Amino acid sequence: MKRIQLITDGACLGNPGPGGWACILRYNSHAKELSGAVPQTTNNRMEITAAIEGLKLLKEPCDVEVVTDSEYLKNGITKWIQGWKRNGWRTAAKKPVLNQDLWVELDELTRGHTIEWTWTKGHADHPDNNRCDELATRAAREGV
């Protein structure tokens, strides 16, 4: 299996407000940057979208390390999602899961891959995370 690193970030100007997402896909010495914007959204939706858009690029099963500065994304996909599915997409407090549409899509995209979810401190020492933050913020500002 190919070993891929996927670095992701989301940004929102206001929450909700104009949002942007970005990711960097690394394979050996190759890197691909992607970003996009949504006119009215939340930061959490952009964090999940960044992971979704990166995983969409994989055309075969891969061994993937997803690096995120979002504890919401990491915990949602590694800790909470199984309970949400068991509970009919309800939280432990019996409320509907926020961003269910994106969680369902992300869950489907993870199938077939071996994925390790790694958290990194945002705005710190991870150059690719900092680059994703820059791309996502620019996308939110410029709407592209």
Strand and helix layout:
Blueprint (H helix, E strand, L loop, with lengths): L1 E11 L4 E11 L2 E12 L1 H14 L5 E7 L2 H16 L13 H11 L3 E6 L7 H16 L2
Parallel strand pairs: 1-4, 4-5
Antiparallel strand pairs: 1-2, 2-3
| Record field, number of beta strands | 5
**Average pLDDT, all residues:** 96
* Shape descriptor: globular
Radius of gyration of CA atoms, rounded to a whole number = 15 Å
SSE-based structural type: alpha/beta
Low-confidence stretches: none
Query: Strand count, sense and closure of the main sheet?
Result: 5 strands, mixed
Helix content: 25-40%
How many helix segments? 4
Oligomer: single chain
- Cα(first) to Cα(last) distance is 33 Å
Spatial order of strands in the largest sheet: 3-2-1-4-5
Report the β-strand fraction as a percent range. Answer: 25-35%
Instruction: Return the string of H and E elements.
Output: EEEHEHHEH
Q: How would you sum up this structure in a few lines?
A:
The protein has 144 residues and is an alpha/beta fold. The protein has four helices and five strands, in the order βββαβααβα. 33% of the residues are buried.
